[in-house]
Amino acid sequence: xxxxxxxxxxxxxxxxxxxxxxxxxxxxxxxxxxxxxxxxxxxxxxxxxxxxxxxxxxxxxxxxxxxxxxxxxxxxxxxxxxxxxxxxxxxxxxxxxxxxxxxxxxxxxxxxxxxxxxxxxxxxxxxxxxxxxxxxxxxxxxxxxxxxxxxxxxxxxxxxxxxxxxxxxxxxxxxxxxxxxxxxxxxxxxxxxxxxxxxxxxxxxxxxxxxxxxxxxxxxxxxxxxxxxxxxxxxxxxxxxxxxxxxxxxxxxxxxxxxxxxxxx
Length: 265
Description:
This protein is α+β, with helices and mostly antiparallel strands. The chain has 2 domains: about 5-95, Gyrase A, domain 2; about 115-265, Glucose Permease (Domain IIA). It has helices at about 5-15, 20, 45-50, 70-85, 135-140, 220-225, and strands at about 25-30, 30-35, 55-60, 65, 115-120, 125, 145-150, 155, 160-165, 170-175, 180-185, 200, 210, 215-220, 230-235, 245, 250-255, 260-265.
């Protein structure tokens, strides 16, 4: 997590996506790098995963998303600084760093214990993740869970834990529960483009919160008018550390009250 380590990681990601020749624009959301490239075929998915990405989503020939977790914003900022300093060559196939042995994913067992029970962070209507109009969420590249289309303005914490990240435009946050589950609550789709309009944070990063505690306040009239979609994914981004999750909610849910899903170890 040192600045030097972050710069090296940023440089490696630039090389992995085809170097500065291929990389045209860098943006980030709460868990992913949103990159514009000359040709997405030149992106080395395997190297991205070796650097720690959980997935690479190629939306079209010029647009890719690299799912890197809650440090996406700092990696994106570091990549911009590296690019400003000068060219970075594309990684050759041989240059991919040695990878650690793949970690075995815990298997779901009949008596798996619950490590986190989440309540809905939003009042609204449940939408299955594969129905979310965003490929990175719908494909579960960002994590597993469910989405909610909000009908009320307050967004609460789905569990007790620490708010490890609130994105600078206040449209998304990442909560780490006491047992280490990382929960991403992402209000709407492509809402990062609204640059914070329609969102107000009610707590700061680093806050210890309880389940049901208000985290964000939304101007729903403005957002329903201006956001591409207000369907809001609530996903566990490190679900591979657990044996799986069980969706509890369907239909209408109430923020802070209705059980949403349970994460099993």
